[in-house]
Write a structure and sequence with these properties.
Number of strands: 20
CATH class of the domain at 29-258: Alpha Beta
CATH superfamily of the domain at 29-258: P-loop containing nucleotide triphosphate hydrolases
Helix content: 40-55%
Largest sheet: 7 strands, parallel
Shape: globular
CATH topology of the domain at 29-258: Rossmann fold
CATH architecture of the domain at 29-258: 3-Layer(aba) Sandwich
Number of helices: 30
Distance between the termini: 12 Å
Bound molecules: adenosine-5'-diphosphate, magnesium ion
């Protein structure tokens, strides 16, 4: 370890710590002065700084040698432009195409900032790097580890997948953290002794994604924890200059560094882009044919949801196309996700089916093809997906599959964004129908059929929720043919049901559709097993299937049944669910058109009649709580002094009313006065709420800090009980928009877990992991937070790593 270059000589004998520090400070002071001078003279426009060596007088020897030993010599354009400005302390909005080296453009300034501030482990958190996904955070961390290896800073990865407490212990000593926003917020809110009050520099990679609706609440809350006087760097291939975003991060006069804004294309020039028009029902055939024809390649196939990914992966696996298949989505266990990314990284030939969880930033080496089997939600997503190939001077090819109804709209969107794309046709002889194989398989394996049904439902839902109706035309798609192309015996019936959820999804559009988060939240088991066509022959497999999925289906099913009486057929802004299929002689409560004959009907006082057409409904009659839904609303009365009952709002005498002036005027007056009142009250409420929140947090942190200081005597449970103080604690531990945090929190609610039908990759990996035992840390000073030390050796390595400074 070239300790010299790090300015931190390695002591031969037991050092006197303070003495050493003094020496170091003095020497560093002189060096720093020189650095500052060199930085002030940097001029990115001069065109003189082309290599990292040209930069060497303006950066620390540690960074310079880290870059050198990682074989980075020439700077890319964005690095040339952004690094000097960032070194000068400017806030930066950086934009450059995918694969053009943005990571180093922010990592070098991060290391340098802390170096010049002479940051030590005692100074706490100095730099925070936000990533929208765990995979990208891991990758950034790896690059940081490489180029920062000669520095003495401690760096950690905070992405969840472990309990808060486990992460918390080591977090407190970290200087640089790479993290996902939601998880970071959790720690800032809940971890005793951890704060960001000293933060020097904040980085947002994939900044436009982090600033969008999916992360809004987490990011806004996070920023409240950060000091205003800090440097902020934002990077993306699709950077937005939104003023509101700048305001949210309190950026003042940022430098806009856009190296490709005059380029003729928004995508790398080494990328060839094509599209194929293939009707939805033929999509899987086309995809299978493509994979068969390219078994010697490395391919990523993007699909719109985790369920699509699972079904396509499982069914293609049965078909054995002759290329190793992998699949990745946000609902997999963290260990499995990492293992799969590693495997695909290392693979020479492989086909990875994935959601948008790897659409951004991930730098898989040597990907030949990016296939977008499901159309991306917008042109920006398209740019990021295809950006997984043709990275940094290498070549790549991309193919987009479009249904005829999507062609015109989508191509218009792409042209508008300067994306050069050409139409191609699939060779007739390369076409291969797998519909029959899928039908056979779905018949043989009820589990696969079940996955198919879920995939179907999630696809219809994603199309329905897409915002761009010029591209996604729900009614133009042939849903029956699509269902049958998946091998399903019938089309799962779907219905858009009005409900809260649609608002939630609309407010966080990316959560619902593209699936960084892969929340898979609502439709697990939405398939209604009772609605199967009566004439269909029930096989023993069908019965088995029903049994297998009983626990998954029952809660959802009963909800559907109970809500039945309240649904209406307003399909406009509805939410998808399975429509309850009524038997022929049943009563159609949904529309009220069918004659009521066989079922028992009870008037409960509400607007609707309660129809007892099933055992469940009969049972519900016994439950006060359930029946409360069906009773009409009661009204509240007030009593005057004479004991007479009045409605709370009673109409005023018309004469009196008229005397007070014209109605319009009165209304306006009332509105004005109420507006003022509400505004005032709102400000007060917000202030109060903020203050309360802060007080509670401080209190809890203080108490936990005391407990920690108090040491062994304290029941470790106390801290956990303390969580009860924060009314938002549970909410925070729930999955955030845009991020799957299902396994992030220690107070994890019992996950709705479907039974396992297939051997899960994570099973092998868990086992492998266990047999390998604790992973040994590399002897560097950069310490990973994502691994719990499992052996004494680990613990020692960890301590050594920290103290090695
Ligand atoms: P972006 O964030 O712009 O998509 P990355 O930072 O992930 O791009 O870099 C893409 C690839 O280019 C990575 O494999 C990285 O190692 C490589 N790279 C970046 N900068 C340089 C450089 N100066 N010299 C050589 N390779 C580089
Ligand atoms: Mg990047």
């Amino acid at each position: 370890m070239p300790a010299k270059t790090a300015g931190k000589p390695k002591p031969q004998h037991k050092p006197n710590k303070t003495e050493l520090k003094k020496q170091k400070r003095k020497r560093d002071h002189e060096d720093l002065h020189k650095l500052e001078e060199a930085i002030a003279q940097l001029d990115p426009k001069s065109g003189k700084v082309k290599t990292f060596a040209d930069l060497s007088s303006a950066i620390s020897p540690a960074t310079a040698s880290g870059l050198h030993s990682s074989h980075f010599t020439n700077m890319t354009e964005i690095q040339e432009q952004a690094i000097p400005l960032a070194l000068q302390g400017k806030d930066i909005l950086g934009a450059a195409k995918t694969g053009s080296g943005k990571t180093l453009a922010f990592l070098v300034p991060v290391l340098e900032k802390l170096y010049r501030e002479q940051w030590t482990e005692f100074d706490g958190l100095g730099a925070l790097i936000l990533s929208p996904t765990r995979e990208l955070a891991v990758q950034i961390f790896e690059v940081l580890r490489k180029i920062g290896r000669h520095h003495a800073f401690s760096a950690g990865l905070v992405i969840g997948g472990k309990s808060l407490k486990e992460e918390a212990e080591r977090l407190i000593r970290m200087n640089i953290l790479v993290c996902t926003p939601g998880r970071m917020l959790q720690h800032l809110d809940q971890t005793a002794g951890f704060d960001a009050n000293n933060l020097q520099i904040l980085v947002l990679d994939e900044a436009d994604r982090i600033m969008d609706l999916g992360f809004q609440s987490a990011v806004d809350a996070l920023v409240e924890h950060l000091p205003k006087s800090r440097q902020t760097l934002m990077f993306s291939a699709t950077q937005s200059k939104k003023v509101s975003d700048l305001a949210r991060l309190s950026l003042k006069d940022p430098e806009y560094v856009s190296v490709h804004q005059d380029a003729t294309t928004a995508t790398p020039t080494t990328l060839q882009q094509h599209y194929i028009v293939t009707p939805l029902p033929e999509k899987l055939d086309t995809l299978y044919g493509f994979i068969k024809a390219n078994v010697k390649s490395k391919i990523i196939v993007f699909l719109s949801s985790g369920k699509q990914v699972r079904f396509v992966y499982e069914s293609f696996r049965h078909l054995q196309p002759g290329i190793p298949l992998l699949h990745l989505h946000g609902r997999q266990k963290q260990v499995a996700r990492l293992e799969i990314t590693n495997r695909f990284t290392a693979a020479k030939t492989s086909c990875l089916f994935a959601t948008d969880v790897v659409a951004r930033g991930i730098d898989f080496p040597a990907v030949d093809w990016v296939i977008q089997a499901d159309c991306p939600e917008d042109a920006d997503t398209y740019i990021h997906r295809v950006g997984r190939t043709a990275r940094f001077q290498s070549n790549g090819r991309a193919v987009l599959f479009l249904d005829p109804s999507e062609e015109e709209g989508m191509i218009k969107r792409l042209e508008h964004k300067k994306i050069p794309i050409q139409k191609v046709h699939v060779k007739e002889k390369k076409k291969k129908s797998i519909k029959n194989n899928l039908q056979d398989m779905c018949f043989k394996f009820p589990d696969l059929k079940y996955l198919g049904q879920k995939a179907f439902i999630s696809y219809t839902r994603s199309i329905h929720l897409q915002k761009d109706k010029e591209v996604f035309k729900f009614d133009d798609l042939d849903w029956d043919a699509y269902a049958s192309s998946l091998g399903l015996p019938g089309t799962p019936q779907i219905k858009f049901q009005k409900g809260e959820d649609i608002k939630r999804i609309k407010n966080a559009p990316r959560q619902g559709m593209s699936s960084d988060s892969e929340s898979d939240m609502d439709l697990d088991g939405a398939y209604d097993k009772k609605k199967k066509d009566k004439k269909e022959v029930r096989t023993k497999y069908d019965k088995m299937f029903e049994r297998t999925n009983q626990d998954v289906l029952s809660s959802h099913y009963s909800k559907l049944v109970l809500d039945g009486g309240k649904e209406d057929d307003d399909e406009e802004d509805d939410f998808l669910s399975v429509k309850r299929r009524l038997n022929d002689d049943d009563v159609d409560v949904l529309t009220g058109t069918a004659p009521i004959n066989s079922a028992k009907v009870i008037a409960l006082g509400g607007d609707d009649l309660y129809v007892v057409d099933s055992k469940r409904r009969e049972k519900a009659l016994q439950s006060k709580k359930k029946m409360a839904k069906f009773r009409g609303n009661s009204s509240k009365l007030v009593f005057d002094e004479e004991g007479n009952a009045h409605e709370i709002y009673e109409l005023q005498d018309e004469e009196d009313f008229k005397q007070q002036g014209p109605a319009d005027e009165q209304r306006q007056k009332f509105l004005d006065s109420e507006t003022v009142r509400v505004k005032e009250a709102d400000v007060d409420d917000k202030l109060l709420a903020k203050q309360r929140k802060r007080e509670k947090k401080e209190k809890r942190k203080a108490r936990e800090a005391m407990e920690m200081a108090g040491g062994e005597g304290v029941d470790p449970q106390l801290g956990a009980n303390g969580d009860g103080d924060d009314p938002l604690a549970l909410l925070r531990s729930l999955p955030m928009a845009g991020e799957d945090r299902s396994d992030d929190s220690d107070a994890e609610p019992p996950k709705k877990k479907a039974k396992k039908w297939f051997q899960d990759d994570s099973d092998d990996e868990d086992a492998k992991k266990k047999s390998k035992g604790g992973k040994k840390k590399k002897g560097g000073k950069v310490i990973e937070v994502d691994q719990e030390p499992e052996t004494l050796e680990d613990l020692e390595a960890l301590a050594a790593g920290l103290l090695d400074g």
